[in-house]
Amino acid sequence: MRNLEFIIGEYYHIFNRGNNKREIFLEKYDLDRFFISMLEFNSEDPIGSIYEHGFEKEKIESKPKLVEFVCYCLNPNHYHFALKQLVENGIAKFMHRLGTGYTKYFNKKYENTGSLFQGTYKAKHVDTNEYFLHLSAYINLNPEAHQLGSLASKSSWEEYINPNLENFCNKEVILSQFKSVSEYKKFAHESLKTIKTNKELRKELLGS
């Protein structure tokens, strides 16, 4: 699955979990810190340490991006992204910076040593629109699928269903295929029910 050759303009499902299934977010601030890293490191010219330079959102957003987020979810011991590669080696560069940066933060804060994540992140090419739509539902509603509370998880679901929220993801690539947000909400919940009961679909989504 990691023998993929990432192609500019193509979409990919990226995911990983804590080493030995350990929790990678121990409190809400850890979730927020990881989310800030998702923005900071998504640049061909990253600003460097968040602690040293502070969080300069406008400065970061003005720089060319490596990847485009379609949706994401952060859970206590794992995460899922749907990404579009924008530049050559964009996903590889972004994921290396994200994994390395957050591991340094986590290990320093919790006096931890060694690997935080379970090896290299996993990746699966999104090769059909049907897969893309089910994947968006699976990622957006992943905290619901695992029955997690809001303090234990964070996803792009609220951004999808609330047009007043600031956009982090390019949700239009998904929502433009539905007549309304309500129609997408209905599809997503029905898709989640199918994923829970359909082992083959669940296996396809996880790329195994």
Q: Which short descriptors sum up this protein?
A:
208 residues, Alpha-Beta Plaits
Give a verbal description of the structure.
The termini are close together. Helix 5 crosses helix 9. The chain has one domain (11-205): Transposase IS200-like (Alpha-Beta Plaits), CATH 3.30.70. A five-stranded antiparallel sheet has the order 4-1-3-2-5. It is of the alpha+beta class and 208 residues long. Helix content is 44%, strand content 14%. It has helices at 28-40, 50-53, 57-61, 90-110, 129-140, 142-145, 157-161, 172-175, 181-197, 199-205; strands at 11-17, 67-75, 78-85, 122-125, 154-155.
- Output the helix-strand order: EHHHEEHEHHEHHHH
User: What is the CATH homology-level superfamily?
Assistant: Transposase IS200-like
Q: Please identify, by name, the CATH architecture.
A: 2-Layer Sandwich
Number of helical segments with 4 or more residues = 10
Which bin fits the share of residues in helices? 40-55%
Total count of domains:
1
**What's the pLDDT, averaged over the residues?**
87
Uncertain parts = none
The top-level CATH class is Alpha Beta
Strand content: 5-15%
Q: Which structural class is indicated by helix and strand composition? A: alpha+beta
Radius of gyration: 17 Å
CATH fold node name: Alpha-Beta Plaits
Characterize the overall form.
Answer: globular
Number of strands: 5
